[in-house]
Amino acid sequence: MHTDLSFLEPGAPWPPRCDEDRLARYALNRARFEGRYREHGRESYMNYFRLTTLKLADLIGKPSVSAGLSRLEADAGPEREDAVWDAVHESDIESLTVKAVYDMSRYGDAVLRIGRGDNGKSRISLVRPDIWFPAVDANDVGRFRAHVLAWVSDVEQEADISALTEGAAAKADIDGNGKGPIARMRAMFISRPQARRAGYAQGPKKQALVCEIHTPGFVEKRRYALKNGRIGELLEKETVPTGLSDFAIVPMQNCVTSDRAFGQDDYGQIGTIAAELETRFEQIAKVLDKHTEPSMQGPAFALTRGEDGEYRLRTGEYIVNQEDGDERAGQVSYLTWDAKLDANFSFVEKLTHHLYSLSEMGGALLGDFDRFGSIPSGSALRRLLISPMNKAARVRAELDAKLKKAIVLCCAQDGVDLSDAFVTIRWADALPADKLELAEIAHKRTGGARTLSAVSAIKALDGVDDEEAAAEAGRIRGESLELRA
């Protein structure tokens, strides 16, 4: 971790040495999520990692905009309420939240940036954690002193294109492709896009390191030359005020401790088990493929010897099972093998159980209902999902706090002060409700009294409006009166 900005000095290596392991872990986990990594020299085909991340995002649930994603106190005023809703709309909070959960699960870190969109309005965006290099307090690693966003940019050498276009003109003149000055002038005026398409711009490229150094109220933009993996001279420098009293960067971290500046991902502790499971399944597949190859068995007299001395079994015609005067009899059949894979399957079951435990996801959430006999619902399903629900609650608590802070900063950038207001985020329950169970609970709590009118029940079940539901209820009452009469 960094405690100052010395890693940006000319001559320093890039990326910084102390960040190499973190960046390598990010790259590995990204490949794991996308299913294109290699374990033990082969491609992965059982992507537990992706399933773990997706199910965590599903369990957390999306913030519901229609239900009031971010709602201010009643006395906050319409101007502040409109500012909150603008921030929510411009940032697409629902999609942003899902992507943030993906990053927190894959990398352990998700980084929010407060900026402006193409329309000039303030918005919250998500930046890649692999370009985030924070500087922290040496005595308190949870306290950030600066946030650096840095990435490498390729810069074409435009002079090379000019030289090559002039070279093309000279070549045209030498080869006699137009026997006078007109042909040379045409070759001289090859446009730069034409030169690139023609393959002339294949010279070496320069690289630059582009940096944004975020401090409270300011962002300093720098551009360094970069050569052979080391930072060169400072090419550009500009300081821009953000209008904020805090950083324009809000990191969200998964399972961070007091001695870590970065969060912990969900893949590290299950990587070995997932690789072992893939190895076991691959071994089982090889054994089954080998033992299911068609092999035949039968008596020796069923074979005939050819001119080449090889014995062959004649198929598609009648074969005598008994020779004249010989009581021996035989039957030609396919040979089946017992692979004795019971111990292997038992080990796979134990590995799967530990995978469920260490990932905190459980078999019920990942779709393993074989051991339950039937698909549970309601309170039974919630009891099975205690561990994954607790994990989702931890991540949701981090999301809730940091999204509130980001929304307040987003509004502050537009000049709307929300420091004395309270922003509320309501999270939808991701688990389906068991309506029969809820009805039974309501029946017991009310002593059998009705808790829902006929009109409301028709609206909920049939998806109609008040007028249609009232008309249907009237027809039902009419039919009831006719039957009584």
First-last Cα distance: 85 Å
User: What order do the strands of the largest sheet run in, or round the barrel if closed?
Assistant: 6-7-8-9-10
- Structural class computed from helices and strand pairing: alpha+beta
Number of β-strand runs: 16
Low-confidence stretches: 65-74, 157-192, 194-202
Task: Provide the β-strand percentage band.
Answer: 15-25%
Report the C-alpha radius of gyration, rounded: 35 Å
Proportion in helices: 40-55%
What general outline do the C-alpha atoms trace?
A: flat
Count up the helices.
Answer: 15
The biggest beta sheet is recorded as: 5 strands, antiparallel
Mean pLDDT: 77
Topology at a glance:
Blueprint: H1 20-34, E1 38-39, E2 42-43, H2 48-60, E3 70-71, H3 78-91, H4 93-106, E4 109-116, E5 122-127, E6 132-136, E7 144-155, H5 158-174, H6 181-188, H7 192-197, E8 206-215, E9 218-227, E10 230-241, E11 249-253, H8 271-291, E12 296-297, E13 303-305, E14 311-313, E15 333-334, H9 342-358, H10 362-365, H11 378-384, H12 386-413, E16 424-425, H13 435-445, H14 454-462, H15 466-484
Antiparallel strand pairs: 1-2, 3-16, 4-5, 4-11, 6-7, 7-8, 8-9, 9-10, 12-15, 13-14
